[in-house]
Write a structure and sequence with these properties.
RNA_pol_sigma-70_dom, transcription regulation, sigma factor activity, 9 helices, sigma factor, Arc Repressor Mutant, subunit A, transcription
Length: 183
C-alpha cells in the first residue's frame, strides 16, 4: 500500500492542508519528472511544481476523494507547464517587435482639461504639505519622496517608530482631506 492510497483512505481524518503537504512531499519527484518529460528544464519544472502547490493551497479541498493523488498532481502540473509554454510563446510574439517599431507608435497625450485638473491637484497637494507642522512634513517627505522606511526615518529624526507612523497617518489624512475639499 503506497502513501497516496494511505493518504486518500485517511483523508477524512486529515485536514486539507495536511493532505496537500503530504501529497506534494510524497510525489514531488514524480511530479517534477512528469513536467520535465514535457520539455521543461529542471528549474522550470521546480517552479511549476511550486506554482501548483500555491494554486492548490488556495483550494486544498480539491484533493479530497481523488483516487490517485499522484496522477492528479502530475496531470495538473503538466497542464500548468503547458499553460506556461503557451504564455511564453505568446509573450515572445507580442514583444518581438523592435524598439524602432515601438517608438513609431504615437503616444496618447492627455486632454488639456485633464492636464489642468492634475496641475490643480498638485498645487493643492503642495500647499497641503506646506501647511503640515515641521516634523510631520519632514516625516512625510522622507517617506513619500525619498522612499525611506519608518525605521530609517525614526533613526534619522530620533523619534519613535510609533511617532513616525502617527505623523504619516495624520499627514496623509490632511493631504487627502485637502484633495477631497477640492472635488
Amino acid at each position: 500500500m503506497d502513501l497516496s492510497s494511505t493518504v486518500v483512505s485517511h483523508s477524512i481524518s486529515l485536514d486539507d492542508d495536511d493532505l496537500l503537504n503530504r501529497a506534494i512531499e510524497a510525489h514531488y519527484a514524480d511530479i517534477k519528472t512528469a513536467v520535465r518529460s514535457r520539455g521543461h528544464s529542471h528549474n522550470a519544472a521546480a517552479d511549476i511544481v511550486h506554482d501548483l502547490y500555491l494554486k492548490l493551497a488556495e483550494q486544498p479541498e480539491v484533493l479530497r476523494g481523488k483516487r490517485s493523488l499522484r496522477g492528479f498532481l502530475c496531470r495538473a502540473a503538466i497542464n500548468l507547464g503547458i499553460d506556461r509554454l503557451r504564455r511564453t510563446r505568446f509573450e515572445e510574439r507580442l514583444f518581438s517587435g523592435t524598439e524602432a517599431e515601438a517608438l513609431a507608435v504615437p503616444a496618447e497625450t492627455a486632454a488639456p482639461d485633464h492636464r489642468l485638473a492634475v496641475e490643480a491637484r498638485l498645487v493643492v497637494l503642495r500647499k497641503a504639505i506646506g501647511d503640515l507642522p515641521v516634523r510631520r512634513r519632514a516625516v512625510f517627505i522622507l517617506h513619500r519622496l525619498h522612499g525611506l522606511g519608518p525605521d530609517e526615518i525614526a533613526a534619522r529624526l530620533r523619534i519613535s517608530r510609533n511617532m513616525v507612523d502617527r505623523h504619516l497617518r495624520r499627514a496623509l489624512a490632511h493631504c487627502l482631506d485637502r484633495l477631497h475639499q477640492m472635488d
